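Exercise 7.
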Amino acid sequence: MNASDLEFQRATEIVNSSYGKFLAYRGDHITNGIKARGEFHESRLTPITARLTERHGLIPRTLVDIGAHIGTNILYAHNSSLFQKFIAIEPCPTTFKILHHNTVKHLNPDQITLHNAAVGSHDGLIELELNGNGNTGDTRVRNPSAPNGLDNEHARQTVEVPIHKPGKFLSNINEMETLFCIDAQGSEGLIAEGFQMDNIKPNFIIIEFWPYALDRLGCKGQFMNFLYDFDFYDVNTLQPLRLSQIQACGAKSHSEQMDILLVRRRTNKHFPRQHSSNPDKSNRVRRPGRSANEASSHPLTRGQNRRGLF
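Solution. The predicted structure, written as tokens, is:
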């Protein structure tokens, strides 16, 4: 066993969850949550998938996990027979090694496709910030022009990884058969822009909203624009959310974040459009225009010939 393998072995452990045993980071925030509760929050996939299937026309065949970490969503969904095919995308090389180990061990090769890369609105290389404080799920695409932040991000170790627009990984996706899970620590706005650039139109998405991280990466506007075509729901209660509830996230603390279930409006056959029917116009998501200069001003893609999000 070489030094790298020995270090990897020391940094990991086998954990028992409500949906099986798998490899995880030793002493990590997510690992500790699984030890305490038997899961992190993977079981919400069951009622969400059922609701989307019954009321919104989802045909549950493929789960796409962007920011898959060590594969807990994939393992839970597979063990629960919620989906047949899986696409897992994880940028951190060490985390990807655990993801690969877990999925290869528990899934058949024809069920899972793995990609070690970040997803965004351009193709190239980026610096990925690593969290050295016991939360390996908090890896973030670095904005080279952002000042040091409240989490002392400039002190973080970084690793260079490839980044690609989503079309690189999602060719021949059937949007009515696919549920997306997106947890990218602030890159969600860039991913949303990448969807538009590659003409990918997900119908069903569980997505993280973290205003602080989106602002640091300069893509909060892209994220809010992305909401225009969706109705949004609380991931735990499955009750409709108002835009004002989403906008209030982050007011208490820079670390405040929320997960949102997005359902593209044209798939909503059984519910009224909560925004278009709401007399309070402040709770509607409007689609603002963007100039050519604004569309090409992001520090990660500046100088490239790109079109705007809308």
